[in-house]
Design brief:
The chain contains three helices and nine strands; from the N terminus they run E-E-H-E-E-E-E-E-E-E-H-H. It has 165 residues and is α+β, with helices and mostly antiparallel strands. The chain has one domain: Jelly Rolls, CATH 2.60.120.10. A six-stranded antiparallel sheet has the order 1-2-7-4-9-3. It has a three-stranded antiparallel sheet with strand order 6-5-8, with no helix packed on it. A hairpin with a 5-residue loop joins strand 5 and strand 6. The protein is globular, with a radius of gyration of 14 Å. The two termini are 25 Å apart.
Length: 165
């Protein structure tokens, strides 16, 4: 299993603010088992919040970072808004989504199961869909979200705190 993430950044498109912090994708970083992923995230200060998939519409969280641990199946997810980048994820992958970064499921296998979590230092996540009248306010909200203190895969000594400085 690897803990060196791929990093992707997305520009503000006028609706989806995205972030100066890169989205991180860890390939084959966790066992394909939801309970094991939940334990790992919890021990690394990202308490698990849900098990499900990714919404099939563009959305983002302005007040919280999010981590997705793929427990089974596979999906193609468009990150960064309508003009962003489609990434394929599969069982064992972990995606850390900075506050403000849009995400939208494009396709998925029938057995897709994702464990979602948020840092233990933040509020319950909000959900926005990129409404133009909210743009300036959510940009300010995203900028105020502190970087996570620990990497959800490798803890405080993992790559996330170094990359998100």
């Amino acid at each position: 299993m690897t803990t060196e993430p791929l990093a992707f950044t997305f520009a503000d498109d006028g609706a989806i603010p995205n972030s100066r912090l890169p989205l991180l994708v860890y390939r084959n970083a966790v066992p394909p088992d939801p309970a094991a992923i939940e334990r790992l995230f919890a021990q690394n200060r990202w308490p698990p919040a849900w098990r499900n998939g990714v919404y099939p519409y563009h959305h983002f969280h302005a007040n919280a970072h999010e981590v997705l641990g793929v427990a089974s199946g596979e999906a193609s997810v468009l990150f960064g808004g309508p003009n962003g980048q489609v990434l394929s994820v599969s069982a064992g992958d972990v995606v850390v989504i900075p506050a403000g970064v849009g995400h939208c499921c494009q396709s998925r296998s029938d057995d897709l199961l994702i464990v979602g979590a948020y840092p233990d230092t933040g509020p319950a996540p909000d959900t926005h869909r990129g409404r133009p009248e909210e743009h300036d306010a959510v940009v300010r909200q995203v900028a105020a979200v502190p970087a996570a203190a620990a990497d959800p895969v490798a803890g405080p000594d993992g790559r996330l705190p170094q990359i998100w400085r």
